[in-house]
Amino acid sequence: MIKNYLIIFFLSMVPIFELRGAIPVSQMLGLPIVPSFIICIVANMIPVPIIYLFARKVLIWGADKPVIGKFFSFCLEKGEKGGKKLQEKAGRGTFIALLLFVGIPIPGTGAWTGTLAASILDMDFKSTVAAVMLGVFLAGMIMMVVSLAGVTIFL
Fold first, then answer.
1. No. of helices (H) and no. of strands (E), the chain
2. What does DSSP assign to residue 110?
């Protein structure tokens, strides 16, 4: 059982997959929903401070490198695009916009993209972490309900 918890822990830290994928996987593995939910939220939040403090600098540094340049440029463009979209829609309400951007579990949104977008927008660290944490919690709640509904439908 610990092996399965480690699987969802590490899946929750993977960009794009994050807890949006890890919570349904936890249900496929037969894990209890509440401990899975907590583990996925904690794991999804671990990279956030690192992304905020270093990702933008690393992506800018690597954008012109031969092997990694295209991927780093793609990530930088995705973060800038997300940041601009947030700013256009939110104006001064970037905290709520970031929370919803992270919290609504659709492809291309999540803690990784949201944190990168916030760092590109120069949002302050505390606001970014708080908005992303609330967004991760919201996404986790949505995925938990969807996963439980999915499990119930197939039984």
1. 9, 0
2. S
